[in-house]
Amino acid sequence: MSIIIKDLHAKIGDAEILKGVNLEIPKGEVHAIMGVNGSGKSTLSKVIAGHEDYEVTSGSIEMDGQDILEMDVDERSREGVFLAFQYPMEIPGVSNANFIRAALNARLPEGEELDAVAYYKNLYSKMDGLEMDRKFTARAVNEGFSGGEKKRNEILQMAMLEPKYCILDETDSGLDIDALKIVSRGVNSLRTEDRGFLIITHYQRLLNYIKPDVVHVMYDGQIIKSGGPELALELEEQGYDHLIPATA
Fold first, then answer.
1. How large is the average pLDDT for residues 209-229?
2. pTM for the whole thing?
3. Which domain holds residue 95?
């Protein structure tokens, strides 16, 4: 079971961003995408999640054999896609605890609701693992949070929702080394044979803590090279220029 992307083309407005992406992310594996700014990495994450600003002009995305391009954002989420944003949004007036509980309740059969005691026990356990003060349950989602607190909150949501496929768009952006270690530990705790990960990053340092199975290099809307974890080290040492096609 996997997400399979074939010859994916997508644009925003008149600008074509994705120009034939081919990628497979099996459950049980962590795939990392690296590339220069403007190569299409974040666009790919948003297109998979169903962001309405992007138009898919050709190609396909299948998740566990099911075409998801006709699904809206909420349907894709319910089917198991989770996107952790580079810049998490603030939601004033909605507490963290109520936000996550509403998302979980929405996934239950009609008429069923979460057991409150079990919910908070699970929530507190996940927060403890991310070294989050339990007072954050009563605070509005991401409002007044530091960059590191916002990223931990994204991982908390992911841990509670237990998606099939986790997409992390530059989760390491703006994190100091201590916050990076905590967030990485939270991600690693969710690695199972039943869950796939796509991690988008500029830097090798994140991959020191979240070990990828496969590393892909993206350039000008396409994946131009794939390899093992050693590819990230190669990029750290040599940069991207030696991989960019001569005709580019």
1. 92
2. 0.89
3. 2-202+219-243
